[in-house]
Amino acid sequence: MDSSNRLGDIEITDPQAMRALAHPVRLAILERLQRHGPATATQLAPEVGATPSVTSWHLRHLAGFGLVRDAEPGPDRRQRRWEAVARGFRFETPEDPADEEGRAAASVLSREMFLRAGELPNRWAAEVEPGLEPRWRRLAGLANTRVVVSAEELAAIEDAIEAVLAPYVTREEAERPADARGVRLLRHVLPEGAE
Predict the structure, then answer these.
(1) Is the separation of the CB atoms in 55 and 44 below 8 Å?
(2) Mean pLDDT taken over the chain
(3) How many Å apart are CA 53 and CA 59, to the nearest integer?
(4) Mean pLDDT for the stretch of residues 142-170
(5) Fewer CB under 10 Å: which end of the chain, C or N?
(6) Are 30 and 89 in contact (CB under 8 A)?
(7) Which pLDDT belongs to residue 2?
(8) How confident is the model at residue 61, as a pLDDT?
(9) 41: how many CB neighbours lie within 10 A of its CB?
(10) Is pLDDT above 50 for 149?
(11) Judging by beta carbons within 10 Å of its beta carbon (0-12, 13-18, 19+), is residue 103 exposed, middle or buried?
(12) Alpha carbon separation from 77 to 33, 63, 177, 187 (Å, rounded)
């Protein structure tokens, strides 16, 4: 596996795929499939805020860009089951200033992802945190650290974080400790404007 993609994410480089994913229902579908595994449009619909037929349309749209695919049939072989093609996804804003389409698409997708991620801490604090055991509650938290680094140093920091996370992200379910549970790690890397 490429050391710049230790987590096995699908890499999105096509601006049209970025724009396709920059839709709240499509992001919700992909997140749900990545988190919980294969599902039908009917199973996904209530969780993503759309009807089964609209959810099915969005699934086919995502499949057209290679982000989801048909899963193994479930108990009811008449219903089409879908799965994410990878545990996560990544994209980059193109460096080439002439690639206006790519830069605009990456910006639209980034904004939609920030909107979705912005809701998570408040929902977690209201719905999940009150029911956590003290041990898990103590480990939860937030850090707001400002560093002054070069672009190369920031890339090295991101690479080091992924190197630490990779063994936990990519291990098989059978390798997880019995008391393991899902933990959402939100990383916002927000370079400041030039001073």
Answers:
(1) yes
(2) 91
(3) 10
(4) 92
(5) C
(6) yes
(7) 46
(8) 96
(9) 23
(10) yes
(11) middle
(12) 19, 20, 33, 39
